[in-house]
Amino acid sequence: MRDFDISALPEERISFSRDIFSVPVIVASLGYFVDIYDLILFSIVRIQSLKAIGLDGKELLDKGVFLLNMQMAGMLLGGILWGILGDKKGRVKILFGSIFLYSIANIANGFVNSIQSYAVWRFIAGIGLAGELGAGVTLVLENLPKHSRGYGTMIVATVGVTGAIVANYIARHFDWRIAYFIGGGLGMLLLIMRVSVYESGMYKQIEEREISKGNFFMLFNNPRRFIKYINSILIGLPIWFCVGILITFSPEFAKAMNISVSINAGEAVMFCYIGLVFGDFVSGFMSQYFKSRKKIIFVFQLLTSTTIIIYFMLHSASASLFYFICGIMGFAIGYWAIFVTVAAEQFGTNIRATVASTVPNFIRGAVIPITFLFQLTRRYFDILIAGAIVGALCMLIALYALYHLEETFHKNLDYIEE
C-alpha cells in the first residue's frame, strides 16, 4: 500500500483547512457567539426579568423599550470607541477589552433589582457588545490569505448567530438571573482562550509608524471615502427592516393578516435566527465559490425582496406556515457575514477596525429611523401597507448602495488610507 503523500493534495485545500481552524477564527467565532447570546437574551427574558423587579402591565413594554434603547445607545457609542481603539491599540486588545466588559455587565445584570441599575448595565453591556464583531472580523481578514478570508468570516458569523438559539434554550430552562450568569461565565472562559491569539501582521507593520490610525473623521473628510462608507452601511438596511419590523412586530402583522392562532414574537425570532445560521453559511460559501461578494449579496437581496412579498401574502395562513416563512426570511437576510466583510475590505489597515466596528452597529441603529418611518406611515395607511412601503424603500436604497460599491473579493488589504 502506498503511503499517503500530503504534498499530493492541492495547496489551496491544505491552506483552507489550516486557515479555517486557526486560533483567530475559532476565538472570533466563539466571541461572537457569546456576543449574540447576550444581545438576544434581554429580548427573551424582558418580561420575566421586569416582573421580577416589580414592574407590570404597560410598564413591561414602556420600560422594555427604554432598556433596549439604552443598550442601543451603548452599542452606537461602543462601535465608535472600540473601532478607534482597535486601529490605535491593536485588534487583540479590543477583543480582550470588549468581551471582558460585556461579560462583567452580563453577570451584573443577574443581580439587578431596579430599573435604574438594569438600565446602567444594559448601557455598559451595549458598549462591550459593540466591539466584538468588528475586531474579530478585522483580525480574521488580516490574518487569512485572500482565498480563505471569506470562509473565515463565514464561520465567525455562522457560529455567532447560533448564540441566539442557545440563549432561547437557556432562558426556557433556567431562571433569567442564571441565564445572565451563564452568559457572563462563558465570556470569562473565552478570555482564557484569547491568551493564544496573535496580533494581525498587517497591523504590526503600521503599529509604530507615524501615520493617522483610528481617525474616525477620515471617513468624512474625503467625499469618495464618505460615500463608500455610507454605501457600506446602507446595503444592510433590509436585514434590520426584516428583524426590527417584520419579525419584532410579527404578532401585530399576523393579526392584521387574519392568522387565527396567536403568533409569539419569541418564536418568530428563534425561527428567523435559525434561518440566519444557514443563510450566513451559504452566502459566505457562495461568495468564495463564485469569487464575488457583490453578486452574492445581490442574489440574497433579491431573495429577501421575494420573501418580504410572500410574508405580506400570508393572509389566513397557519401559524406553522408563518413561522416557516420567518425562517426563510432569516435565511434570505443571512448575508450579514458578507456585509461586514465587504465593509472591512473597502478600507485601509489604519481605519479598518473603525469601519468594521461602526458599520454593523450603525446599521443596527438604523432600526430607529426605520421604526420612526414605519410609525409615521401608519398614520396614513394600515399596518400591512405601511410595512410594505417601508420595506420597498429599504430594498431600493440597499440595491442602489450595492451597485455603487466596488468588488472586494480579490482586493489586497495591505495598504493604508491617506
Describe what you observe in this structure.
There is one protein chain. With 418 residues, the chain is mainly α. It has 2 domains: 16-195, Up-down Bundle (Growth Hormone, Chain: A); 216-418, MFS general substrate transporter like domains (Growth Hormone, Chain: A), CATH 1.20.1250. Helices cover 76% and strands 0% of the residues. It contains 18 helices and no strands. α3 packs antiparallel against α16, α4 (91-109) packs antiparallel against α5 and α13 (294-311) runs antiparallel to α14. The radius of gyration is 21 Å and the shape is globular. The termini are far apart. Residues 1-9 have low confidence and may be disordered.
Features:
18 helices; globular; 418 residues; transmembrane; Growth Hormone, Chain: A; mainly alpha; disordered N terminus; 2 domains
In short:
It is built from 18 helices and no strands. The protein has 418 residues and is an all-alpha fold. Helix 6 packs antiparallel against helix 12, helix 13 (294-311) packs antiparallel against helix 18 (383-403) and helix 15 (336-345) packs across helix 16 (352-365).
Secondary-structure element series: HHHHHHHHHHHHHHHHHH
Task: Give the tally of β-strands.
Answer: 0
Ranges with pLDDT <50 over ≥5 residues? 1-9
What is the C-alpha radius of gyration, as a whole number of Å?
21 Å
Overall pLDDT score: 86
Q: Treating each run of at least 4 consecutive H or I residues as one helix, how many helices? A: 18
Oligomer: single chain
